[in-house]
Amino acid sequence: MTSLKDLIRAAQDIPSQDDIEIPEWAPGVLFRVRGLPAKDWEDYQNAQARVRLQQGGGGAEMTMKSNKSEIVAKALYDQETDQLVFPDLREGVAILSAKSGGIVNGLFNLIRHLSGDDKTFEQKVKDAEGNSGGGQL
Q1: In the chain, which end has fewer C-beta atoms inside a 10 angstrom radius, N or C?
Q2: Could you tell me which of 66, 119, 116 has the C-alpha nearest to residue 96?
Q3: For the chain, how many structural domains are there in total?
Q4: Contacts of 86 (CB under 8 A, 6+ apart)
Q5: Packed helices 68-75 and 38-48: angle between N→C axes, nearest 10 degrees
Q6: How distant, in Å, are the alpha carbons of 67, 80, 94, 116 from that of 99?
Q7: Is 96 part of a structural domain of the chain?
Q8: Are the beta carbons of 75 and 34 closer than 8 angstroms?
């Protein structure tokens, strides 16, 4: 009998979307965009907000950092080869950071959707109920 842990490990639960065309970058080329695993989203969210305490009890300073280019570089695939477009993440971030913010933001929003990060907890529970065999979460 397969354990629950093994069933979870084997589950293919990260969706992708094919046939994404970005004519401004590569006319006629089709990309695959994949959602990201929980760890990548947590790393991204944790890096967004950093709180720095000022020495001497002078309070705290909060800085916001958003690196949508990094998320896109981790999730953009050549649909034909199923290979990452940017296997070197640092290079991918550098290239994407210099590209259209509208295109990068659109891809980021798609990745966010595929990763389930644009849903409330209640929506996720409702979706899970619809996909289950009548069991509970």
Answers
A1: N
A2: 66
A3: 1
A4: 73, 76, 92, 93, 95, 96
A5: 170
A6: 13, 23, 9, 25
A7: yes
A8: yes
Q: Which of 115, 41, 28 is nearest to 79 (CA)?
A: 28
DSSP character for 54? Answer: P
Q: Are 35 and 77 in contact (CB under 8 A)?
A: no
Q: Coil, helix or strand for 37?
A: coil
Tell me whether residue 135 is in a domain.
no
For residue 77, give its domain range. 15-37+66-116
User: What are the structure tokens assigned to 27, written together?
Assistant: 């006319």
Q: What tens digit of pLDDT does each residue of 80-126 get?
A: 999 999 999 999 999 999 999 999 999 999 999 998 887 776 776 67
pTM of the model: 0.76
CA 118 to chain centre: 11
81 domain-assigned? yes
